[in-house]
Amino acid sequence: MQYDRDRLLARRALMVARGDWRDQTLLDHLARAVAATPDKTAVVAIRSDGTAAERRISYRELDLLSDSIAGNLRARGINPGDTVSFQLPNWWEFTVLHLGCLKAGAVSNPLMAIFRERELGFMLALAETKVMVVPARFRGFDYAAMVAGMRDRLPALQHVFAAGGETPDAEPFDALLVPAARPASTLGPDDVMQLLYTSGTTGEPKGVLHTSNTLLSHLVPFAERLRLGADDVIHMPSPMAHQLGFLYGLMLPVMLGCTAVLQDVFAPPEMARQIVQERATVTLGATPFLNDLTDYVEQTGTVIDSLRVFASAGAPIPRALVAKARQTLGAAIISAWGMSENGAVTTTRLDDPEEKAISTDGCPLPGVELRVVDPDGAIVPAGELGQLQVRCCSNFAGYLKRPELDNTNAEGWFDTGDLARMEDGYIRIAGRSKDIIIRGGENIPVVEVENLLFRHPAVAEVAVVGFPDARLGERACAFVKTRDGSTLSFAEMSAYLNAQSMARQYIPERLEIVADMPRTPSGKIQKFRLREMARQQHG
């Protein structure tokens, strides 16, 4: 792995002295769970395709299966530091494979199931992937055939395995499960153990590198703040190939010694069914997951009485949705903000007053420092808009082979690329700095406009972006997905915002109704694509 290891280790003395880095790996937590509760269910994996519909794996079995994977990877020439890429849905094989990689000393590289030749060709080549694991088929697509057609462009790739079925284009995943002895060496707490490509809201993925120390240093205070423990059941509908799913659907349950319930294809009725059936106490997902589950429960009257926490991250949650979800689901709605580069660094608290819980993205977790600065790097007054910077124990080790893209200064402050306001220690994200709209020299508060529009009864989703204007520099366009059976005209939108006493300059000057929003694999709206659409339609 090519990255600045010296810079990572320069942080070590301070992180250890503060108690943020505890020099443990997920294998230490797995060993504790196996010793304490070997027969407890570690993973419940529910497949949507009807094949092997449900698999329950105990902690003892999880340990034995991952031992076999580690031994079989090593027997196939995979050495410490080599990359194992896996393009798997939320299946049990995902969890077992990552633990096996840790035991073999290999770097796990999860890849979103929606990626195809164009994205994979770049990602696998950059990672010099030696082993690739795919589903035989998933949602009707032949992954093994796709990878077979790419192998002549991937000289480092030595083995391709397919999970969930047989295919002539790959070795069976079961070959990795043949009983084999666990190798003697594993990854240490300061070794890179995860390579995760950014989800691409800007259109350019970067290979984020993490160690056990960086990621576990975030999970410990996260669990403490949300009062999570071994008795919880964590439901995960978000892809585990995204940082949210990986951290809280794989690492967190093992760290706690609790049960993870994995949903491989998101559908609100199935999500509600799984939460009820498995008595899930916690679930996590981006805003669309929260919105759709809330609507389904409200419309059907489904009783979800086990759920106590829904943590939502990935994009600012509209205030109206937080309030509605709290009432409908009967659970605490935790707003969180973070990135692939550092996990969640802020969350609201379970006992926050309503104003903080509804209108902010939380306060820093222990081990995290935040500041909001102007373009010259000076800290802005409380409540004013500026660039959000983070210095924290969970900050990543660097970008694979691309150190020039790392916006971390000599003092350890990472430039997030997000605009935010901070007051009383709580932040509110105002959007990406690249998403800012400057109309006639005045900054439009994009998130505030989106929040107001989301409260309109016809609006299911909304995103506001800028498009070029010869006179004003930029104007604003609102992209809206309407609720079923609803309509919204430009005149109705303008009248509604006027009635909310919004400054006339902030009201979008165009409205585009769309069937769906373009999204990253993790559910974030890709505003750069909306900007392209606005420019094309305007031009």
Could you explain how this protein is built, in words?
- With 539 residues, the chain is α/β, with parallel strands linked by helices.
- It has a domain at 436-538: GMP Synthetase, Chain A, domain 3 (2-Layer Sandwich), CATH 3.30.300.30.
- It is 32% helix and 26% strand.
- The strands form seven sheets. Strands 2-1-13-12-14-15-16-17-18 form a nine-stranded mixed beta sheet, with helices on both faces. Strands 4-3-5-8-9 form a five-stranded parallel beta sheet.
- β22 and β23 (426-432) form a beta hairpin.
Mind summarizing the main beta sheet?
9 strands, mixed
Looking at the overall shape, the CATH architecture of the domain at 436-538 is: 2-Layer Sandwich
| Strand fraction | 25-35%
- Principal-axis shape: globular
Placed side by side, the strands forming the largest sheet appear as 2-1-13-12-14-15-16-17-18
The total count of helices amounts to 16
Q: Percentage of helical residues?
A: 25-40%
What name does the CATH topology of the domain at 436-538 carry?
GMP Synthetase, Chain A, domain 3
